[in-house]
Amino acid sequence: MKRWPGLIKSYRDWLPVSESTPVITLKEGGTPLIPVASISKRIGGNTKVYVKYDGLNPTGSFKDRGMTMAISKAKEEGCKAVICASTGNTSASAAAYAKRGGMRAFVLIPDGYVAQGKLAQALVYGAEILAIKGNFDHALDIVREISDSYPVTLVNSVNPYRLQGQKTAAFEIIDDLGEAPDWLCIPMGNAGNISAYWMGFKEYFNAGKCKNKPQMMGFQASGSAPLVYNKTIIDPETIATAIRIGNPVNKEKAIKAKNESNGAFLDVTDKEIIEAYKLLGKEEGIFCEPASAASIAGLLKRKDEVPTNSTIVCVLTGNGLKDPECAIENNDAYFHKGVEANIKKVASIMGF
Ligand code: AN7
User: Residue 250: which domain range?
Assistant: First the structure.
């Protein structure tokens, strides 16, 4: 079996890289497209639902797709330090790739609102972390100004190389299915990923690699849904801290993706997110983070509008291990504590 060389090498002709670009890679991309029968069954008809499990990237989220590009280009340009604002995953990914490329990584995070796994990663990768008294939107305003004034490269999704790397997920889906899906369901925070997917689908379509393009279905958490309500949310709140964002920087691009694809935006409540999160774990053996489960929650909420015999891909943007606190607080498991180390006792609890 040939080893996966990472997405820059796999899709070199589609990316703005040259022979002189140093490729900083952890072999990201090439993630599996997994059928999820229990979700297909709930939709009914002959609908086939798949998840694009991007939580299997090297740092556990889709951000690695964008970061291999952003950091490789930063390295090419001689950059010594990068900076980002983050709800967690961007900071973990930026730190990993920056360190691999021999750069400093400054990350601004909203104090108290980053899942433990993400924080653990940033710490171990050696990021220089500033937990600020404010939310993601405040942190992003600061890093944009800092990167304008000082010699540090911004690696949030306003950096165009991020979206270039992330568009490869759309290529992979078409390469796997042999055609574009009918719907692409995706959670939205800063709305970079939906914009990148749409760019990827359009590029493959224009090159004759597929006959159709999907409808882009973007989902946000109800307490944090600026794109659904078409207004900035000053105090966004949701259990899905990854998408706790009130003023998405890629808003225009995302609206364009929705309109051009005849797609839709919808919000899902935290309760619906957690139902989908538990369902994927219990019935499919797939553990994603709450933000990612919004794509499944959204699909289930819109199930009456699903075209017949359609193929649907839901993007699972991050790994469930990122947010162990959420998992421990939200599950239907039987968890017997302090059980005596005794065969009879164990058997009786097992119901034998
Ligand atoms: C798991 O890490 O914004 O709509 O700072 O971590 O492209 O912003 C994370 C976003 C979805 C939303 N799922 O993607 C950050 C950050 C997960 C995420 C999103 C994020 P965009």
Answer: 7-61+162-329
Question: Which is the closest atom of ligand 1 to the Cα of 322?
Answer: 1
| Nearest ligand 1 atom to alpha carbon 84 | 5
**Which residue bears the tokens 């239907």?**
332
Q: Could you tell me the pTM of the whole model?
A: 0.98
Pocket of ligand 1, candidates 82, 114, 190: which has the most ligand atoms within 8 Å of its Cβ, to mutate?
190
Q: Are residues 169 and 148 in the same domain?
A: no
Q: How far is the CA of 62 from the centre of ligand 1 (A)?
A: 8
Which residue blocks in the chain are alpha helix, DSSP H?
7-10, 37-43, 63-76, 89-100, 116-124, 136-149, 160-166, 168-177, 192-206, 226-229, 251-261, 270-284, 290-301, 324-329, 343-350
Residue with CA at minimum distance from ligand 1 atom 4: 191
Q: Are residues 321 and 174 in the same domain?
A: yes
Per-residue pLDDT, averaged over 11-18, amounts to: 98
- Whether 256 and 313 map to the same domain: the answer is yes
Same domain, 304 and 190: yes
Q: Which of 117, 132, 159 is the last residue of a domain?
A: 159
Digit-coded pLDDT (tens) for 66-110? 999 999 999 999 999 999 999 999 999 999 999 999 999 999 999
